[in-house]
Amino acid sequence: MGEQDSFIGKKTYSKIAFGEAYIIYQESHSIQPHRVKNIPEEIKILKKALEKAKNEIIKIKNSLENRAPYEIFAIFEMYELLIDDFFFQKEIEEEILKTGLNAPFILYSKTEERVVFFDKSEDPLVRKGGDDIRFVSDKIIFHLLKQNQEEKGLQDKILIAQKLSPLDLILYSYQGIKGIVLEEGDTTSHVAIVAHSMGLSYILGIPNITSKVKNGDTIVLDGFQGVIYKNPHQQKMSELIKKMQKQGELEQLFKNSNNEKQTTTIDNKPIIIQANLAIFEEISKLKALKPEGVGLFRTEFLFHEEHEIPSINRQVAKYIDIATAVPNSIPVTIRTFDFSADKTPFTLKHIEQHNPTIGLRGIRYAIYSNIFKEQFEALILASQKLSIKILIPMVSSITEVEYLKKVEAEILSQYNIEKKHKLGIMIEVPSSVYLINDIANLIDFLSFGTNDLMQFFLAADRGNHFINDLKNPLEPTFLRFLNFAVQEGLKNNLFTSICGEIASNPLLIPILVGMGFESISCSPFVIPEVKNIVSRLSFEECKRFKDNILKLKTPKEVEEEIYNFINANYPDISELLIK
Amino acid sequence: MSVIEKDVILRNSRGLHARPAALIVKTARMFKAEIAISKESDTVNGKSIMGVLMLAAPSGTLLNIRAEGEDAEEAVSELTKVIEMEMEY
Known about the structure:
Shape of chain B: globular
Number of domains of chain A: 2
Low-confidence stretches of chain B: none
CATH class of chain B: Alpha Beta
Strand order of the largest sheet of chain B: 1-4-2-3
CATH superfamily of chain B: HPr-like
Distance between the termini of chain A: 28 Å
CATH architecture of the largest domain in chain A: Alpha-Beta Barrel
Radius of gyration of chain A: 26 Å
Oligomer: heterodimer
Low-confidence stretches of chain A: none
Mean pLDDT of chain B: 90
Number of strands of chain A: 15
Number of domains of chain B: 1
Helix content of chain B: 25-40%
Number of strands of chain B: 4
CATH topology of chain B: Histidine-containing Protein, Chain: A
CATH class of the largest domain in chain A: Alpha Beta
CATH superfamily of the largest domain in chain A: Phosphoenolpyruvate-binding domains
Structural class of chain A: alpha/beta
Number of helices of chain A: 23
Order of helices and strands of chain B: EHEEHEH
Largest sheet of chain A: 8 strands, parallel, barrel
């Protein structure tokens, strides 16, 4: 057993996982040229690496068949064609013979030479071709440099990398990985959203972790604490295993108690438990999780295969696909694009913005560009046939709502159709809370996005580590504001749902129920747990509990009060939640 | 040895990206004939994915298929179908 150590990253509240480390090096960049002594031997090594890389690609491809969506399978089909190409099979060999240089360097430099053409293209789909060639080349280089290491595949591994694209993560997760640890990224980054959606354990933001861990090290990843343990000693290991077993038992308990019946508190107040989704592939998981709706379907990733925003017709087809793929025809709330300049998979022509988080995004970008109108039109058309609710992000002023209603009316009259959809807005900009009264007759529902609402209310940047302590959802001022906002919605008979990160944190559920939220929309994997907890709560008791909480002055007092409440009411889960 | 040549318009709305390119190459490889695909003055080997990708042809491009070999006629007719196909992805 190797050297033991532990590293701290950001808490992600994902469950404990353990497995062997598998490090993804971005190593090709450091390859230097040198003359080889035995050229026929170098070519033999190259051929062997080509064969191994090809077998690996075929193995992955076969394992994906019938398991992963066709788009993902097709990527590996493409890799297989690429590795068979004359370029890899012949040109590299010829270049080694000509120059007498080492195979990894020739492969790397010829690939870079070749992809220049693709990188220069203005068409994102052509540029993607360059990425595909690089991917295959890197795979071959990996086998050239690690000839003696048998490729065992990624099943049950903990993946460790500097950074990953959301698409790469989707590809890896279909190969059976247990968890991921990244040097970059924070809990609200897109790769985190995808990791969460795929039900992976993950920790982000551990600097230089790829050089501190070796392939084959035993890694235990504790998302609740935001810690990874490398080769933990026996006592620590048994402690972690116990914790993992406890989590497993609870998961089983929650799973067993899960059913399709409507979730109500013990005093019969219905609370609709919905799922937050970001990618189409997640829909297949809903059947087992039994949500009562999709409370938030982010669309920024929906077209991750496309690299450009599809036409209205293709969008309509996609939205209809979604609403027909969900189990039991549950209603689906689809949120229009909310691109913030730093994270978009599309190559939209972004405008230089000094502070994009409070700049041109959500409905503001929508008014500025044509993209929104097309998406709105596609959603309205799709909702003619299926139960689709349309959710608009970043609303901050009444002019935006008036604009929405104008566009909505134009679209309906253009097609001569009636409004069948429900229209709602995100409550995530503090000013929108004071709009609710004025726009109640224009919209149908409210969805609270607490990540942004908190960041704007407390003026605390989500991505800034220096003020981590400030970004606390237990901050009494924030809870009072949130409570006020919910009452505004309820007073006006608007359906109120919460879909922010705090809705996926089981500790906060009694407060949210006490505030009167009619729906909680959370990460799909916590649905059974949230349902279980809600069905054991008394609404009346939660209201009193919430009123007491709102009188407290510090987050610490709030935290203690929550623990007291959970200890008294849910002793079986307190052991896990309270550490 | 027969040589068949034909001009075909690429129909896929998003151009010759990975998926259609892969399909063209897979189709071309089913035949013994040598297959060349050209866009204006650029000509590539129809059995090389790297080559076909480098055509970077947008939707509506006029492509020329040239096949040489005993099954050239069949190859051109199958490739025409693929190039004229509209694909979902």
